[in-house]
Amino acid sequence: MSIALEGITWDHPRGRAPLEKSIARYRAERPEVAISWRARSLRDFGELPLEELAERFDLIIFDHPFVGQAAKRKLLVDLTPHIPAEAMAWLDAGAVGPSWRSYHWKGAIYGLPIDAAAQVAAYRPDLMKKAGRHPPATFDQLLRLAQDLRQHGLWVGVPACPIDAVCMVLTLAANLGRPVTTERGIFLEHDFGTALLARLKALVSLSHPDSVRMNPIQMLDLAAGSDEIAYVPYTFGYTNYCRPDAARPLRFTDIVAAGDLACQGTLLGGAGFGVTSRCRHVAEAVRYGLWLCSPDYQRTHYFTDGGQPGMLQAWSDPACDAQSLGFFSSTLRTLGSAYLRPRFAGYVPFFEEAGLKTNAFLRGEGSAESLVDWFNAAFADAVDNA
């Protein structure tokens, strides 16, 4: 019997290449299985509702904040009964930070941790050396660095397009010890929130003027492709920019400490492998997903094909670390203590609007006080209507 599985991923070498290159290898083991992958934009990956995609594809690479919505609308298969006990054991023991847990929702599992990421820092060693500066350790040092780099014609760059602007708010809140959770019943306490937004606005005002229009990929492309950006304090990590073939390789490291918690609490990213409810071959789809996530495949083919593994065996593998200029060893501490944002049904629409409001504030519209008030009212409404 012939089995066909169609999948949708996100349009970046990290999201596309390891899956496309896996097709022939998997078919060598399972000749009766034909797999195909298509890609959607990074923006759609983070914002586009899953309903349309779940109707068209069998496999989906998705962002974990969608799990509440997927569960409520029965868009994805609960993988729990389809994962053998042995595989469940190595997933429980071997995923990076909270990436595996991020796909668990109300007793069900909706994704496999194929890719792991969180907000980390990036810099150009050559440009930092040119300016006689080192990566900062605290937020105050970061602000001074942003000022000092201007004397050398260089910039700090902050990805602060709408979605990434609110991501920084969430990271700073968690890093300062007050993470946003539904249990707290409030998005940000008023005085704390206004002070946080003031610090963030001060950073963006000292950063590259295109910061408010850029996402992490655009900022990292600028940092790697020109000699303008010396340091990026908050960006999702990408091993693609620190591989041996990179013309101007970047280094990645832990974020600065905004308070007393070192690098703890940066917002978790990454990507999960899900099976949609339309899939007629669930057992085979899960088998393929587990094959992709298996530690040995993750630290070999998945990484060398351009992927960013989700399993700890790859992150702690000396060969992977050497081939990415120390990316994994330099950011694992941040990943291990990453912040898991809310995932309830209705969170993603709130998140999208919060991003637009935060970006507008960083561009000079409105006050910190009014934005905190909006955050708290809109978040409470989203929770109540979940």
Structure write-up:
The protein is α/β, with parallel strands linked by helices and 386 residues long. Helix content is 46%, strand content 13%. It has 18 helices and eleven strands. The strands form three sheets. The protein has a five-stranded mixed sheet, sandwiched between helices. Strands 8-9-7-10 form a four-stranded mixed sheet. It is globular, with a radius of gyration of 20 Å.
pLDDT under 50 segments (min length 5)?
Answer: none
Structural class: alpha/beta
Number of strands: 11
User: How would you state the average pLDDT, rounded?
Assistant: 96
Order of helices and strands: EHHEHHEHHEEEEHHEHHHEEEHHHHHHH
Helix content: 40-55%
In spatial order, strands of the major sheet run 2-1-3-11-6
| C-alpha end-to-end distance | 42 Å
The major β-sheet equals: 5 strands, mixed
- Radius of gyration using CA atoms only: 20 Å
Regarding quaternary structure, what we see is: single chain
Q: Strand-residue fraction?
A: 5-15%
Number of helices: 18
- How would the global form be characterised? globular
Write the SSE topology:
Layout: E1 3-10, H1 13-20, H2 22-29, E2 33-40, H3 42-47, H4 50-56, E3 59-62, H5 67-72, H6 85-94, E4 104-105, E5 108-109, E6 112-115, E7 119-123, H7 125-131, H8 139-150, E8 155-156, H9 162-175, H10 190-205, H11 216-225, E9 229-236, E10 251-253, E11 271-275, H12 282-293, H13 295-304, H14 312-315, H15 318-322, H16 327-336, H17 347-362, H18 368-384
Parallel strand pairs: 1-2, 1-3, 8-9
Antiparallel strand pairs: 3-11, 4-5, 6-11, 7-9, 7-10
Helix pairs in contact: 9-10, 9-17, 10-18, 17-18
